[in-house]
Amino acid sequence: MAASGGITRRRFLGATAGAGLALVASGGVARALTGPAFLRDRGAPLPGPPFTLGVASGDPLHDRVVLWTRLAPDLLAPDGGLGTAPVPVRWQVATDERFAKVTAEGRTTARPEHAFSVHVDAKGLQPDREYFYRFRAGDQLSPVGRTRTAPADDAGLKHLRFAFSSCQNYQDGYFTAYKHMADEDVAFVAFLGDYIYENGVQPTAPRQHEGPEPMDLAAYRVRYGRYKSDLDLQAAHAAFPWIVTWDDHEVENNYANDRADDDTLPPDRFLERRAAAYKAWWEHQPVRLDPPDGPDLRIYRELGFGRLAQVNVLDTRQYRTNQPCNSPLDVGVACADTAAPTATLMGERQERWLRRSLQRSRARWRVVAQQVMVGRVNFVPGGTDPVFNFDQWDGYGAAQQRFVDTLDRAAHGNAVVITGDIHSSWVNDLNARPGDDASRTVATEFAGTSITSSFDFAAVVAGSIAGNPAVKYYEGERRGYAVCDLTADEWRTDYRYVSTVDSPDATIETAASFVVDHRKPGAQPA
Ligand code: FE
Ligand code: CA
Questions:
Q1: pLDDT band, very low/low/confident/very high, at 2 (cuts 50, 70, 90)
Q2: pLDDT tens, 79-123?
């Protein structure tokens, strides 16, 4: 009932790899396989194969899904090596991977002002169904992507599987986790932030960024080109629709609204950088959004999966107040600021939207897909004052309480928060009063791990877990992703870890599994 189609993942990806080349190289065969209209009427030749960044789909609804690609014969050039003239692009959606049964097709234009990216909202599709899609530009065919629509709003869906991931620092290792994720049987991937990292070159890293920190649109485009060139990442995008949000590193570490990290840029200059970063993010993600024009882009949104699940995607960066306590470090002794009632991570509008959206929902599970950890963690338990990570919800205590109240009142124990950012794996029971372990458990949080990004404090943090009883599981050393399996009665999360990120040959294993009974919030070992 979830994402499995009639073919195995291996065969699908095998067929996908090199499909563009094969079809172009042997046009006669391609015509015979795929129907003539899409292949006739070829445009002007391009300077090279344009689909170097792969294909992607995202934000599935019951009747439509966003299809994405970006033409870039030169994948590290800001203009992709295409200059200034728009390029016509054709697209197709079919129910079979050979495109014998085409359901929808059309034309669009890849424009230089959007880095020759393409966002097509393919409509008129059937709910809860697998589709295949591809693009054509010039005389070239893209690889074939597979996607899946959401179930109808009133569908009594019995079963849903999805994966979530976050934090993929290219310089920290290989994205082999995505090669394994592409083999999973999931309906979608939720990506929770830190798709790129802004850091300059780290010469001793296993793989390197180009150039210094990106500060303008051209440099952010080059950075996305580098990340999107990864074939394992491309495979995971080509296998499932993604629901993507961002965290800080898509712009800069630990930024808050218009405040640069450590105030290294004045707010007006930082907003120019943010505008460039948001534009590049939009250009490279399969999202149903108009292109941003300036430093603002509303990305918080809701997606429905029948009566089984609603996914609310948050943005806890764009509207947040600055991190409290003027600490040069992320972690420190709590000061009075951490309880400031005016402090916010979501901003007032988004808080109101979330409250209403969750109250309106009749879905069994309310999935809140967001960035920083909600569960209270005192990193030095037993002291006079708690030690918090100021960038997490703990740094914004009043907002944290409002968030937990919203989950409690609207979701009646069936809210599950999925979280990125922390480069480690956590299962947290969320108390009605954060920090008061005697208060009711009202919701559950699954955080982490990271695709590659390292966690330098894994061992230190391990020593603090016993003093935080709401933390049901912690693992700081291992990289990977999580798979969630939902029925009406039970939520299950499997933590899937790769054996290494230092070489591209990692194996994968499930190292921990937790379940949530819908009648009883909080996680239990499976
Ligand atoms: Fe990160
Ligand atoms: Ca982060």
A1: very low
A2: 999 999 999 999 999 999 999 999 999 999 999 999 999 999 999
Is the peptide bond preceding residue 204 cis, with omega within 30 degrees of 0?
no
Integer angstrom CA distances of residue 442 from 25, 201, 438, 523: 58, 44, 12, 11
Please return the burial class of 360, using the count of CB atoms within 10 Å of its CB with bins 0-12, 13-18 and 19+: exposed
Nearest ligand, measured from the Cα of 424 = 1
What is the CA angle 397-455-185, rounded to 5? 90
pTM above 0.85, yes or no: yes
- What confidence tens digit (pLDDT) does each residue in 326-343 have? 888 889 999 999 999 999
Distance (Å) from CA 421 to ligand 2 centroid: 4
Ligand nearest to the CA of 169: 1
Report the distance separating Cα 291 and Cα 112, nearest Å: 13
Question: What is the C-alpha separation between 429 and 521, in angstroms, rounded?
Answer: 8
Cα 130 to averaged position of ligand 1 atoms, centre (Å): 31
* Ligand 2 midpoint to CA 57 (Å): 24
Distance of CA 62 to the CA centre of its chain: 20
- pLDDT tens digits, one per residue of 137-166: 998 999 999 999 999 998 887 899 999 999
| Residue 185 dihedral angles phi and psi, to the nearest 5° | -105, 85
Tell me, in angstroms, the distance from the centre of ligand 1 to residue 456's CA: 12
Ligand approaching nearest to the C-alpha of 172: 1
Q: Looking at the CA of 391, which ligand is closest? A: 2
Q: What pLDDT sits at residue 41?
A: 59
Q: How far is the CA of 455 from the centre of ligand 1 (A)?
A: 9
Q: Which ligand is nearest to the CA of 423?
A: 1
Give the ligand with the smallest distance to the CA of 248: 2
CB 302 within 8 A of CB 357: yes
Sign of the torsion angle spanned by Cα atoms 264, 269, 275, 276? negative
